[in-house]
Amino acid sequence: MTAFVALYLVTGLAALATAWLKGGHPERLGVVIWLAGWALALLVNDLRFGDLRWAVALLDLAAFAAYLWLALRYDRWWPLGVSACLLLSIAMHAAVLLTPEITPLAEASAQLGFGMLGVLIQAAGAFERWLAGEAPVSASAVWGRRQRAT
């Protein structure tokens, strides 16, 4: 594992944990979508059509649609940013299909860069929610338990 991949994994997990703990329902749904994409991509990463990882490209397309739905469903800015990162990732898949000179290392570097930007945008969305003074879902769940106990 290269240092860039390790940085992506550590940064990604920290950003997703921040979004889960400090975010609301849209942020948590975004974390679930991202983690599901990671898990499924590990399973289908080796399915190729030439140099194109077609199953991963379909997963990126599905994630793009899910984040676009989040952006239209909730009043949040960050799903549009994540959608843009996923659109760039889909464009990279298309570039691999259309340009045989792109090496697998170049594709992996681009995909990791877009992925890191995507998870950082998700964390920024949770941070913005915290700056706005909105309580995270985790705090309301604890408050609800305390309130029922009394």
Keywords for this entry:
single chain; 81% helix
Brief synopsis:
With 150 residues, this protein is mostly helical. The chain is built from six helices and no strands. It has one domain (3-149).
How much helix, percentage-wise, in residues?
over 70%
Secondary-structure-derived class: mainly alpha
- Our count of helices gives 6
Distance between the termini: 51 Å
Radius of gyration: 17 Å
Shape: elongated
Instruction: Characterize the biggest β-sheet.
Output: none
Q: Proportion of β residues?
A: under 5%
Tally of separate domains: 1
Quick one: how many beta strands?
A: 0
Any low-confidence stretches, pLDDT <50, length ≥5? Answer: none
Mean pLDDT: 90
Q: What pattern of helices and strands is seen along the backbone?
A: HHHHHH
Explain how this protein is built.
- This protein has 150 residues and is mainly α.
- It has one domain.
- The protein has 6 helices and no strands.
- Helix 2 (25-44) packs antiparallel against helix 3.
- The chain is elongated.
- Keywords: Membrane, Transmembrane, Transmembrane helix.
- The chain crosses the membrane at residues 29-47, 54-72, 78-98, 110-127.
Please describe the topology of this protein.
Layout: H1 3-22, H2 25-44, H3 54-73, H4 78-98, H5 104-131, H6 137-149
Helix pairs in contact: 1-2, 1-5, 2-3, 2-5, 3-4, 4-5
